[in-house]
Amino acid sequence: MTVNNILQYESNIWATADLLRGCGIKESEWPSYMMPFFALVMIESRLVRMFDELKAEIGEAALVEIAPEDLTELIEDKGQGYNFYIFEKNQTLKDICKNDKSFDVDFEAYLRGFDGETKDLLGVDATEGEKFLDIKGVIRKLKGKKVLLGYTKEWSSIDLKPFDNSAITTLEEHIKRRWADISAETAGEQYTPDDVIALIAEIIASKIEESDKLLKIYDCTCGGGNLLFGVEDRIHQRSKRLTQTFGQDWNDALYALAKIESRFRVDSKIEHGNTLTDDKFYNDEFDIVIANPPYGVSWKGYQKDIDNDKTQRFKYLPSISDGQLLFMQHLISKLNANGMGVVVHNGSTLFSGDAGSGESNIRKWMLDSDFVEAVIQLPTDEFFNTGIYTYLWVLNKRKTPNCRDKVMLINASEKFKSLKKNKGSKRKEVDEISRLEIVETLTRFEDNDYGRVFDKEFLYFNKQAIMLTNVDEQGKTFANRLKEGKTSLKLSPLKLDNGERTLTEFTITDYDSQRFGSLVEAFEQDIKPFVSSLDYKEQPLTVTTDKAWYRFDADRETLIKEALGKEEALGCGKIVVKTAFKKGTKTQPERIEITVELTPDYQKDYEIIPFHRDEVANRAAIAAFMAKYITKPFEYLENVVGVEINFNKVFYKPEKLRSVKDILGEIAVLNEELKRLEESL
To answer: If DSSP codes are grouped into helix, strand and coil, which group holds residue 18?
Structure first.
């Protein structure tokens, strides 16, 4: 039966929440009550369907003659699970709910009739540790509220037997999306909408060649499996390739749902655990990788494991506040030599981090290695619990010749259809026509009005550090007054005056005992704060020596020396006053020392300069930039190459200004109207 038919049950499933609401259970807790029962109905429907298929295959008469132990073995060999009640007593959840007097005993026996793995996933026997769906805990709470039978009966009325795996997966996606909307899940976790899954599948299908070779698909943050299994189903609609799915997630309940789903697919493998610290597919590589990892989620809790990772998959480490690019590096490490992938991220993966940062270095490594084929900007308001822009990174280890060392940016922010009814924050969807247009643009790999192809170095930039020497209005610097090899001129001051306080001692051994308990206390509470507050540019700070006195002229931006009634401009520089507390020694007592020196005014600065692939051309471009824009003396320091992907810059469209003629015409009309109003008064 079709997907549209199965979606009628979405409202039936949500009707079960009415009982939860009626007995005072908070809406945010509904998913934890609904997940295990949805899993129960999903398992039962598939086991019953499998049993019906088995009957049709070997005949009901032949089935009766099979010994119970042989029948059990026959069913278990299919790897989809087992239940004593269904296969030996020929009873379902609906049958159990008919007798309210024996319900508790029958329901307990029904649950214990499942195979060991199913009981583990449902949490039938769990007492501590991993409970996954924790149906035992949910049953205990529902019993306490005296609604267990009524709640179970509601679920037993939902008949999924007529539907195939793909249809049930679609229903599961819709239900899990609504769970994600109302539950307090980890910040940054985003449920992937159907239309985005369809777009990802279309991109992947466009690059798949017909072959007898198995296509291995991997999702490192698979959650409940909606993206992983949704892509697999859509690939089957477009291609005859055999597929096998692999996924891992560390959310207990979502892992259990994905694991249950995987048993009804050919040789699908779903594992539980943190992909970044415990990769369950350590020795595997895949043809296709897909993921929608959490956005902006800290990895501080397992920083030590990441720092000590021995797999060499993490070339650089991003900011500890956001682990998205850890997942990106992990996925690239899982691609085989001809593999490709599509990964959903938010905008921080494009531009967060300055040149030399972990994020920028990761982007540069990806582009240097030529792993990135395209980045696609999706519309805002696409996801159910956020309105931000999201981006599809298209990875490809087997680029066609025309794509090598190039990256395509596709601005699909306007490729959508508005929903008739909002779904949380989701107000738009990338409709089928838009999806096909986007895939066609990517396939053609040529510029159009919303897609641009660049040499990958277009996304690089130089961050050139320089040391500027500040000069006064005459272009002079105090550096020119220093002897060769000297970096400053140390003064022997007699007096230091800032207009509010005057210092005449520069080696201080005494202190005011009425104000301070010790010399170090006088230093910490008086001298040190005073020296720290001195600002030669903002205060009339004057340093007097036995031969001259010195100050800074802020208007002319120069140091001034006055001696014998003559004033001399020394060039732009600094008056540096320092103080330190010295402990007593055998030869000297404890003391406060104050030093004053004149230094050139150096200033470290950075210039952002376009990057050129050729090293000689790149150096020439930096030199040309400096000659054009830097007027002060400077020295080159380090140059760091960064990578940033800026959609606003690439696709910026300036607002079209109205003509002066039109504006003057409107002003004339307004003036006439004002004139009429004045006359009417």
So the answer is: helix
Pull the structure tokens for residue 342: 């599509």
Q: Cα–Cα distance between 331 and 346 in angstroms, integer?
A: 17
What pLDDT score does 131 carry? Answer: 75
Query: Which uninterrupted H or E stretch holds 497?
Result: strand 495-497
pTM of the model: 0.85
- Sequence-distant (≥ 6) Cβ neighbours of residue 71 within 8 angstroms: 63, 87
Q: How confident is the model at residue 189, as a pLDDT?
A: 57
- Block residue for tokens 């993490």: 314
Question: How far apart, in Å, are the Cα atoms of 523 and each of 139, 414, 497, 576?
Answer: 70, 65, 18, 18
- Helices then strands, counting H and E runs in the chain, come out as 26, 24
**Burial of 567 (C-beta count, 10 Å sphere; 0-12/13-18/19+):** exposed
In one letter, which amino acid is 265? Answer: R
Nearest CA-CA partner of 158 in 349, 354, 13 = 13
pLDDT value of residue 186: 45
Q: Tokens 């280890």 identify what position? A: 397
Write the CA distances from 289 to 12, 244, 259, 554, integer angstroms: 35, 12, 18, 62
Query: Which strand ranges, in their side-by-side order, compose the sheet holding 602-610?
Result: 602-610, 460-469, 634-643
**What single-letter DSSP state applies at residue 523?**
I
Q: Are 20 and 33 in contact (CB under 8 A)?
A: yes
CB atoms within 10 A of CB 99: 10
Side-chain half-sphere exposure of 639, counting CA atoms within 13 A = 18
- Rounded CA gap, 374 and 398, in Å? 13
Q: Which 3 state secondary structure label does DSSP give 79?
A: coil
| CB of 244 closer than 8 Å to CB of 267 | yes
622 in Cβ contact with 445 (< 8 Å): no
Using CA atoms, how far apart are residues 318 and 308, in angstroms rounded to an integer? 15
pLDDT at res. 187: 44
Residues 6+ apart with CB under 8 A from 370: 399, 404, 405, 456
The pLDDT value recorded for residue 58 is: 82
Confidence (pLDDT) at 28: 83
Half-sphere exposure of 65 (CA within 13 A, CB side): 5
Residues lower than pLDDT 50 in the chain: 1, 184-188
Q: How far is CA 449 from CA 414, 550, 655, in A?
A: 11, 64, 17
CB 391 within 8 A of CB 365: no
pLDDT number for residue 253: 87
- Residue indicated by tokens 């109207």: 673
3-state SS of the chain: helix, strand, coil percent to 5? 40, 20, 35
Contacts of 633 (CB under 8 A, 6+ apart): 468, 469, 471, 477
What does the pLDDT read at residue 224? 87
Per-residue model confidence (pLDDT) at position 188: 46
Residues 136-163: b if buried by 16+ CB within 10 A, e if exposed: bebbebbeeeebbbebbbbbbebebeeb
